[in-house]
Amino acid sequence: MPNNKRESLLFTFIMCFLMVLWMSIYNVARQYGHMGADVIAAAWIGFPPAYVFAMLCDWFVASPLAKGFAFKYLVAPGKSSPRAMTLAVSTCMVFPMVIIMSLYGAFEGALHAGTLAVVPMAWLTNIPWNFIMALPWNLLVAGPIARFLFRRAFPEGTVLARPQA
């Protein structure tokens, strides 16, 4: 787990990259009805704006909501194990991010379709599909990879809370 705001931001960059890239590939594959190089290319083209949007939503909306809920109702900092806190926050992050990013995807699809009329149904349809992929991907793949990469790149105590003078 990150120990300060700087570590949290760096970890969020890694985690968001893994989640947005995979969920983009997944959603494009659902839309195209198959998996192939064309799906990966289309997902990669749409990745940069989705990544920026997801980072902003994660940092300013989802993370405060998830941490607030997890630490109020699920785990107690200092009393719960680090693993329990990680699982609680990671699980709670999926809910707002799926809702927000499913709406983003619905608007993106509406732009390609040329009509906003499809947004409400596309959004409501995408939420369960995205949730059943995002939760296990977050807990079983992206989270462990992000934590591993983060601690390999930034060993404990190497990212300072404030820059040294």
UniProtKB/TrEMBL annotation:
InterPro entries (alphabetical): DUF2798
Organism superkingdom: Bacteria
Keywords for the protein's UniProt record, in alphabetical order: Membrane, Transmembrane, Transmembrane helix
One Pfam family here: DUF2798
Keyword Transferase on entry: no
UniProt keyword Transmembrane helix present: yes
Transmembrane segments: 9-29, 41-63, 84-107, 127-150
The protein's name: DUF2798 domain-containing protein
Species name: Paratractidigestivibacter faecalis
